[in-house]
Amino acid sequence: MIKITKNWYELLKEEFAKDYFISLQNFLKQEYSTRIIYPKEENIFNALNYLPFEKIKVVIIGQDPYHGEGQAQGLSFSVPDNFPFPPSLVNIFKEIESDLNIKCKNSGNLIRWAKQGVLLLNTVLTVRQGQANSHKDKGWEKLTSKIIQMVGKKKEPVVFLLWGSFAQSFEPYIEKQHLVLKAPHPSPLSAYRGFFGCKHFSKCNDFLIKNGEEPIDWS
User: Fold this and answer.
1) Count of Cβ atoms closer than 10 Å to residue 176 Cβ
2) Is pLDDT at 1 greater than 80 in this prediction?
3) What residues pair up with 59 in beta bridges, in sequence order?
4) CA–CA gap between residue 80 and residue 72 (Å, rounded)
5) Over 90: is that where the pLDDT of 135 sits?
6) What tens digit of pLDDT does each residue of 68-126 get?
7) Where are the beta strands (DSSP E) in the chain?
8) What is the C-alpha separation between 36 and 23, in angstroms, rounded?
9) Tell me: the pLDDT tens digits for 54-78?
10) Are the C-beta atoms of residues 79 and 87 closer than 8 Å to each other?
11) Among all residues, which ones are annotated catalytic?
């Protein structure tokens, strides 16, 4: 079930050999054979497969995949082309448009960001249809925490966009050379408490430019 690029496999192969990951794989084999699980198996590691480790410039941490039919594609907050935007993504695009004074594309498919260096990483990478958090505490968190720790140790400066208390719990993994930007989650329940107006997208690009990196085209 490990459909992952050689770049990432080499970085994570020690994790894949550990007992927790072997147990997770056995659990997933059973789940995929008996239930409807999202995303499709070949898309589980898309957040990594679209973006080599050395090209990471920005990290956006989510929780678990969308659990509606066809929505999840292995990237946090992203949905395929022609899908309605989930509420949090609507609010992300609103903030981008307000912050950068641009118009976002009419697609929630964020592969376009991943290809520019944005790691869109959920901490749990699979979910049962219609059951949010159904694959929580099965082992994914150990793997994704390891990935965040690895990025947090990179020498090259990275921007971490930590939205909500869950994402912010990873701040201790992030070393001082990086930029950490914190705000409430973009969910409609909390976006008005400070996500709107946080200007994370312009701050992110300013930091990248200052460090000799190409800014992200957030449209």
Assistant:
1) 7
2) no
3) 119, 160
4) 8
5) yes
6) 999 999 999 999 999 999 999 999 999 999 999 999 999 999 999 999 999 999 999 99
7) 37-38, 58-62, 118-122, 127-128, 159-163, 179-183
8) 19
9) 999 999 999 999 999 999 999 999 9
10) no
11) 64
Say whether 182 sits in a helix, a strand or coil: strand
185 and 195 Cβ atoms separated by less than 8 Å? yes
Name residues whose C-beta falls within 8 Å of residue 110's C-beta, 6 or more positions apart in sequence. Answer: 75, 77, 78, 118, 120
State the residue for tokens 């200052």: 210
How far apart are alpha carbons 106 and 123 in whole angstroms? 27
Please give the DSSP secondary-structure letter assigned to residue 18.
S
How would you write 92-153 as a 3-class SS string? HHHHHHHHHCCCCCCCCCCHHHHCCCEEEEECCCCEECCECCCCCCCCHHHHHHHHHHHHHC
CB 62 within 8 A of CB 121: yes
Locate 81 and state its tokens.
């082309």
Residue 148 CA to chain centroid, in angstroms? 10
What's the mean pLDDT when you consider all of the chain? 97
Q: Phi/psi zone of residue 158: left (φ > 0), alpha (ψ -120 to 50 degrees), beta? A: beta
